Amino acid sequence: MAVKQGGSPDPEANLQLGALIKAAKANSVPIDNINRAIKRATEKDAGDFTESTFEAYGHGGASMIINVLSDNANRCTADVKSTVNKNGGKMAESGSVMFMYDLKGKVEVPTVIDEEELMMAAIDADVDDMELIEGEEEGTSIVYTDPKETGAMFEAIKAMGLAEGSKMSLSHVSKAPVECTEEDFEKNMVIIDALEELDDVDSVEHNMSN
Fold first, then answer.
1. Which DSSP letter does residue 147 get?
2. Minimal CA–CA distance to 189: which of 170, 204, 169, 179?
3. Tell me: the pLDDT tens digits for 50-107?
4. Which end of the chain, N or C, is surrounded by fewer C-beta atoms within 10 Å?
5. Which residues, 6 or more positions from 172, have their beta carbon under 8 angstroms from its beta carbon?
6. How confident is the model at residue 210 (pLDDT cuts 50, 70, 90)?
């Protein structure tokens, strides 16, 4: 999409593409994958991909934000709605789920970070907003920041010598996480797994704390 919008497959001439390539490399995306994506975007028959978001309710008070990237909006909408409905979920009106989340910059680091060291690195990188939490896997960390400061936060991580294996992205973080029963959690994961199997679905975010 950046190739089409910027008008050139050359990252030096297309600043938007250059920034995306830099982020992709920071996220350990293989260079072959990057080159293939650029090649597909420059082909005459390449589709115009657009990003969009769907909102849904699961079981036991769970909610979901479904992020998609598709070249066929009608197919994508039908697939997402069908997948949610047939697995016991319910599609939500636009905005009825989103307001329960904050959009934040997210840096995932494959090691435990010392909070004081991180704070000093963040200050040096001119990052004002920072929150450090334990990662989903033992021995890992997640740093949340203002979306506009995500790149600067990643530079702070790099300055600490922790760039290898670290990843940055934007993430919707629940303002009020919900702890579901084990049964409801398993039902919700069926919905999420089925959605993530769809070609157009990029990611599914949720408010479950367990």
1. G
2. 204
3. 889 999 999 999 999 999 999 999 999 999 999 999 999 999 999 999 999 999 999 9
4. C
5. 65, 98, 101, 102, 103, 104, 205
6. confident
* Angle of helix 150-159 versus helix 115-124 axis, rounded to 10: 120
Helix 31-42 to helix 15-26 angle, to the nearest 10 degrees?
150
Taking the CB of residue 43, how many other CB atoms lie within 10 A of it?
A: 8
User: Alpha-carbon distance 103 to 205, whole Å?
Assistant: 11
Q: Exposed, middle or buried: residue 68 (CB in 10 Å: 0-12, 13-18, 19+)?
A: buried
- Strand ranges (E), the chain: 50-57, 63-70, 90-91, 101-109, 130-134, 141-145, 167-174, 201-206
pTM: 0.72
- 8 A C-beta contact, residue 64 and residue 205: yes
Q: 3-state DSSP call for residue 7?
A: coil
The one-letter amino acid at 73: A
